[in-house]
Amino acid sequence: MDMLIGEYNNTLDDKGRCSFPSKLRSVLQQNELIITQGLDHCLMLFTTEEWAALTEKIMGSASIFDNQKRLVMRRFIAPAQKIEFDKSGRISIPQTLRDYASLSCGGECIIFGMNKYMELWDAAVFRKFDEESASSVQEAIESMRDILL
After folding, report:
1. C-alpha–C-alpha distance, residues 141 and 120, integer Å
2. Which of 55, 58, 82, 89 has its CA 20 to 30 A from that of 70?
3. Is the dihedral of CA 7, 109, 101, 30 positive or negative?
4. Given a cut of 80, is residue 79 above it in pLDDT?
5. Is 27 exposed, middle or buried (0-12, 13-18, 19+ CB in 10 A)?
6. Mean pLDDT for the chain overall
């Protein structure tokens, strides 16, 4: 599979659907995605193959007797849902996930291609997050210096 990359501005329609970027759709080899709660109050979208590989790693290292691992399973794996593209290339975002990410019908949203997965943000929430984290970007980049060069 080619990389899922790019930034795409969009809106949610009055039924909670979002037109999925054709550039990203052309990379996908199937008509469905897995969507779940992400970090920083965004949603994460995975191909079924990437989702299976990731959850296998999580569940392989998880124990129901480990509080932190149960938290990850409850916040990341449990809310996951399979969604399909409609004939117009839209995805319907489940209400519980829209609530989590503060996505409102008729509101602006942003889809980020993150190579192996995608993030879906409410545009206002992302702008606030981006402003608040701006001072940490340099430090974050420097922490990756061993792999960047």
Report:
1. 23
2. 82
3. negative
4. yes
5. middle
6. 92
